[in-house]
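User: Quick sanity check before I run a bigger batch. Here is a single chain. Can you write out its predicted 3D structure?
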Amino acid sequence: MIPPNTLAKAGSLGLCLLVLLGAVARSHAPGAAEYVGNEGVLVTHGAHGVLFDALFDQSYGNYVVPSDEVYADINAAEPPFDGVSALFVSHVHGDHFGAERVLGYLQAQPKVRVFGPRAVKGALAQAGADEDLLSRVTVFASQPGDAPARTTVDGLSVHVVAVPHANPQRFAGLQNLVFRVTLDDALTVMHFGDADPVLDNFAPHFPLWQAAGEAAALFPPAWFLRGMQGRAILERIDARAVIGIHVPAAAQADPKAYREALGGDAFVTPGERRALSHGEAP
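Assistant: Done. Predicted structure follows.
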């Protein structure tokens, strides 16, 4: 007869092995990015997903606004939005953030959290968000030159730095956040918001990002790919892919020609997807 404690140890060992194998499987799960509109991007890793700048209403006559059908799918957590646990907001401009849109989403999906600049919470409160809903909103006081802010929640590791918005004289005082987000300790992406492509804005953060390892993808506004400083910034950040966003709606007429003129990849038409491969730890 096999002693009971031997069976118990074997069962415990088997359970540990299953947990370990599950962790390994998650670390190698596929990653993907899907274009929602303007700077709106869905990033998924296995069954886990996050949204960046995806709920807004304003096109300003130039940019792509998601369709009502897409917003219905987001609110109902229909695939591919069924695994979303967080919405990241780079800054409070109408082509990146709509308080009514975000409020409706949070009401429809009680497990989703929001991360963004201070103005996000005030805008949601003004739109009618109660204290319970606002407790799911994390805001950052970060200003240009500050050390990175960090938080870890729900399988996400988040690093945040503030970089001035493009045309900083016009938008002085507006918080624009650059998010570096890692899903499941495996897939890392960076979303730049409307950052001003000035090398000095980013230089203090290069050592941290270098130490953090290779990112799967960077999502800068397309103007980073049009200028020498923007390209120099992107080249200093280790990443397997660079995908431009904030692309004019008119580019949908000929996406190939737009990308060729840009000299790099970009999301142009909502629903476009890119496979994302894992970066490597240092």
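Confidence is low (pLDDT under 50) at residues 12-27.

User: Great, the batch can go ahead then.
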